[in-house]
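B., you asked whether I could sanity-check this one before it goes into the benchmark set. Here's the sequence:
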Amino acid sequence: MRQRLNKWSPRVGVGWDPTGTARTAIRASWGIANDAVALEGLLNSNNVSPRAGDTINRTGTLDNPWLGQVGGNPFPFDWQVTPKFLPGSVFIPFDNNLDTPQVQSWNATVEQQLAERWLVSASYIGTKSERLWNTTAINGAIFLTPQSHPGLFTGANTCVLEGVAFTPCNNATNINQRRELRVWAAQNNPALLPDAALFANIDEFRSDSTSNYHGLLLSGRGTYSGLNFDANYTLSRCMSDRVAPGIPNPNETFHRGRDRSYCQSDRRHYFNLAVVANAPQFEKPVWNAVASNWRFSALYRANSGTPLTISSGVDRALSGLGGQTADQVADDVYQGTSIVPRSHCRRSATTATWTSFRCVDSRPGTWTSRSRASSRSGPTASRRAGRYSTRSTLRSRTTR
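And here's what the prediction gave me:
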């Protein structure tokens, strides 16, 4: 990655009491934050050929562990002197313009005190994330057609790749032969085929994904008849391109626009309520010692469902990459028990009863029109909880 020194993280905030009575407050803030480099990605990008590789020898003995090993003992190993390139190696290079993620955040809040013991507030919260990392396959398997590569076809659906005939031309057994580098070398410079065969998946890290979040937070707290109330409700939406924060290889090529959908953390509605009751004080010391100082709290939470990604379970694109999404059957996917039966469609039991997706309908070699990202909301969730506690006071008497 190129060194960049123009990483500024300014922050500004303002507060105002419009009435001068300390019962109304208006606040707003804005700031920029820059993320650090994911060191896990750096480690994986360097732990590949020619700097590293696995040497497995199953014919050795305790007396001669390298018996049968071509070239004998491979150690000591210096990749600069004797580099080792293994066929079908996987690489994760960095784009020349790769940059660290940046997040802009802003908010505005109005708070108002009501009566003596109630406080309500309304807040708008927004974020915009840029330069998020994703991966793009730059040596993917090509879906070959007589129109795109006429020199490789000997029939309507028969092609010859590196001297071997395949019918059908595109299938799961010749994914590596259909990779871009090998196809180019076979057609333009066959002498480079041995070198091209050293590369399998090459997923390049790029920093061109974005996301945004907008939310309205309403909250209120106060006391009534000896009860303490604290409630808040959030209406929000989070949209994001596909991102790859960890080690994704091998991965599907990022499709701009098609792969933009709801964030995995998106919850359209979120409501929390907490009620706390304190036991009263009694006049009689015995009752006061046994029944007072008790506190009971009740909690309730309700929220929208988790975004779901409906996968087809098959490699329709014939790219050797899994996780491809299903095509949608109807405009309304929440149709009770209406499911198109597909034996090779991967669905979990919790979603198969109320979503309707067509799993294999597009012609081979094409990607589904449905976003890979989380595009449908799962079932809503709610939670109730209660707890009680007591407080005790230890008294001591000092004599002189």
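One thing to flag: The radius of gyration is 31 Å. Otherwise nothing jumped out at me.
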